[in-house]
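Task card 7
Instruction: Convert sequence to structure tokens.
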Amino acid sequence: MARNGALVPEAKTKMDSFKTEVANSLNVNLKQGYNGDLTSREAGSIGGEMVKRMIAYAEKNMH
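Output:
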């Protein structure tokens, strides 16, 4: 059974604010809504940094 929706729909706003926070820290101009003008490098750097921070958070809180 395919599941394309979010497991926790309430998390969308938190993830959006997290994405904006990461983009700002990387000096990437992320707008509200469509961001098709971003380069692949810029978009990838945002996603990569988000994953890096989430893994660090999980590792820190596993103990």
